[in-house]
């Protein structure tokens, strides 16, 4: 028995319709309406003038089309976002709004929004970011000559300057204040300075109730050239955590070096290491993989050549043919478990089996050295800067290309 009349069925069918076919996907009118509503709310909340309706619809549909193309590209190459990765992303979004995940979920639902819909949107955004990075990064090449040219410019020279994070507290005193008033203010500032130097946190000391109030705050990370002259004169001489007092026409300034980075020689303890990796699989359990690397360690200790064992057994494609040799590595370059085992293994010895996300390893430490990485670090900074500068330009070009190459039928 049919309980829905003909007119009702017709109305149901007309609730949604295809507005565009994009490769193997479709964009529905409901998706377009929802995105338009979100965009209108965002523009209104920011006080931005609303563009003409036809422009708003066209640009929103274009964005949906580009998103669909990129999502499909991600699906074709097997981009997958695990629940753990998605949960971490949701937690970051919640934290940006000053909430934990459960509070964020409750807040969304109280506003009539779907938490699951938000998760799906975040998932799509992560997929798109990975697809963009994978395709755009390979279009960007930074030559050594480009790096040299950039480092010779003013911006390049600034890049290698040290950066300072300074906390500032000013006790304002009028230039025309009586001498006794200036003396009382100076005595108070020196008492606060003594408290800070004896271990009281800077923020706590300058915000404590008292006869005088300080103004100021965190100046953020700044290079020397970007600091006011008052701070630029004193910053290079302050160690991390140190506080000093400076007098100016405005009053008494407490300057705290919260942190500093760059501008110093970067000497890194490097390790020359080789390893053998065995991965658990459907035909080899985790216990069996561990037992195999333990056996290989014993064979190496008994006199077999470690490099030959690596060529025969190691499943690290990048190093197996090199006898497991990973070259000189710096702290943090490897996964944490490997790093820890490498640091704990004396030169000339082979580690016990160690488990990482890749499988079971044994590693042999061949040598250690102290390496000055200052120039390398500066050049890497310059490469990253140039890469970021080129990224948006290449991204725009790639988006135009995939849009032109895709089959799109707008209804």
Describe the structure.
This protein has 411 residues and is an alpha+beta fold. It is built from 16 helices and 11 strands. It has helices spanning 6-14, 29-45, 53-76, 83-96, 101-110, 115-136, 144-151, 154-159, 179-197, 202-207, 229-232, 286-301, 306-313, 317-320, 336-344, 374-405; strands at 18-22, 25-28, 163-172, 215-223, 243-248, 251-261, 267-278, 325-329, 354-356, 359-372, 408-410. The longest helix is centred in the last third of the chain and has 32 residues, at 374-405. The chain starts with 5 loop residues before the first helix and ends with a strand.
Radius of gyration: 31 Å
Distance between the termini: 36 Å
**Average pLDDT rating:** 89
Order of helices and strands: HEEHHHHHHHEHHEHEEEHHHEHEEHE
Can you identify the CATH superfamily of the largest domain?
Porin chaperone SurA, peptide-binding domain
% residues in beta strands: 15-25%
- How many strand segments? 11
Which overall shape is indicated by the principal axes computed on the Cα atoms?
extended
Give the helix tally: 16
Identify the strand order in the major beta sheet.
4-3-6-5
Largest sheet: 4 strands, antiparallel
How many structural units, i.e. domains? 4
Low-confidence stretches: 1-14
CATH architecture type of the largest domain: Orthogonal Bundle
CATH fold type of the largest domain: Triger factor/SurA peptide-binding fold
The helix-and-strand class reads alpha+beta
Helical content (DSSP H or I, runs of 4+)? 40-55%
